[in-house]
Amino acid sequence: MKIMDNTARKNFDETQVAVPQQAAPKTVVQVSPSSVDVKVPFSFIERAAIAVGSVLVLCFMIALVSARIALGDSQRTLQTVNSQITNVTSNNNDLKQEIGTLNSSDRLQHFAKTHGLTFNEQAVRNVSK
Fold it and tell me: Count of alpha carbons within 13 Å of 63, Cβ hemisphere only?
């Protein structure tokens, strides 16, 4: 057992033992009551920055409202134009159908018979574009 005692002593170094360090003493700052109630006024630059920022925000709000109104007007105009295009397209289709009806050979023969005219089909030439 003596061997173990020597080994333990050789490996034991007093510098390795952790020594608890003492905390630094805390300094307490006492504030006088008169310095707490003092309010620091805004400087000229701070006031100017607040004023400029407020004006910019107001301008952006007005621009946003104006843009939304313009967008609504544009959408309304687009809807009106689309409606007009639909009406014109429908009218064109009706007129094309009427042209087809008026150009039919049955109708031409009926018209000729009603007015005492003769219809010679070999003399008719159809021209298309």
Answer: 6
Cα distance between residue 35 and residue 46, in whole Å = 22
Sequence-ordered list of residues with C-beta below 8 angstroms from that of 108, at least 6 positions apart, any chain: 119
Q: Output the tens digit of pLDDT for each of the chain's 129 residues.
A: 555 555 555 555 555 555 556 666 677 767 666 655 678 888 999 999 999 999 999 999 999 999 999 999 999 999 999 999 999 999 999 999 999 888 888 887 888 888 888 767 777 777 776
Q: Are 119 and 112 in contact (CB under 8 A)?
A: yes
The whole-model pTM stands at 0.49
Of 113, 103, 129, 109, which is closest to residue 121 (Cα–Cα)?
109
